[in-house]
Amino acid sequence: MSWKIQQEEIELSRSNFEANIRFLKKTRLLNKNKKMLEIGSGKGVMVNYLSKKGYDIIGTEIKDNYIKFAKNRFGIVLKKISGEDLNFKNNSFDIVLSFDVFEHIPDTNKHLNEVRRVLKSNGHYLLQTPNKWTNLPFEIIKNKSLKKHKQYHCSLHNYWELKKRFKENGFNVKFYGIPVVNDFFKKKIKKQFGTLGLIILKILNPDYFPYFLKTNFYLVAR
């Protein structure tokens, strides 16, 4: 199967779409006979991408404007459901996906219990979430720009906290090292930190950091 990505998909995605696809490919868990759910589908880019390739996937989203966009652009109906209250029957899915979602969920214990409930006994939860430690500069900028009293990301974890959180909720986890420095990442750095950020990036490339200092964690939980 070809994993070719269109430029539109990169531009419309809320996250590092190229890195996310690389992760899915590396896990070798996707199968067209498996039923999949994506939590926090944003504008529906991943659901559309996988659907076009013949995968059985549905998506959820809480923002009305994203749900409307997905319907108008892709003809996809995203269910308005939060990550803490998945309105699906027990044992409904073989695979659950989420990208840049876990860190936004106030009650991650409730979220993980819900994911475990809707997953089949041999199912997998594939996700990506930023590193609490290395994401600190972005948090400072985002919290200041939003001018809100609540955190931009309310549930960031470091490597050890993430392992503990999943273990406490009955999951075994496997982390994957996925390169994230691409055009999308460089544009993000330039937008937030200017040219100086790109200069620093050349010296301190996070793709070569020890895993506990990676900017993003990719993991499979089961």
Q: What is the CATH topology descriptor?
A: Rossmann fold
Protein structure class:
alpha/beta
Number of domains: 1
Q: Tell me the number of strands.
A: 6
Could you give the order of the helices and strands? HHEHEHEHEHHEHE
Rg result: 17 Å
Low-confidence stretches: none
Residue share in β-strands: 15-25%
The CATH architecture can be named as 3-Layer(aba) Sandwich
Query: How is the main sheet built?
Result: 6 strands, mixed
| Shape summary | globular
Number of helices: 8
The CATH superfamily label reads Vaccinia Virus protein VP39
Terminal Cα span: 25 Å
The CATH class is Alpha Beta
Q: What do you see in this structure?
A:
The chain is of the alpha/beta class and about 220 residues long. The chain starts with 6 loop residues before the first helix and ends with a strand. It is globular. The relative contact order is 0.15. Strands 2-1-3-4-6-5 form a six-stranded mixed sheet, with helices on both faces. About 40% of the residues lie in helices and about 15% in strands.
Properties at a glance:
alpha/beta, single chain, 6 strands, Rossmann fold, 222 residues
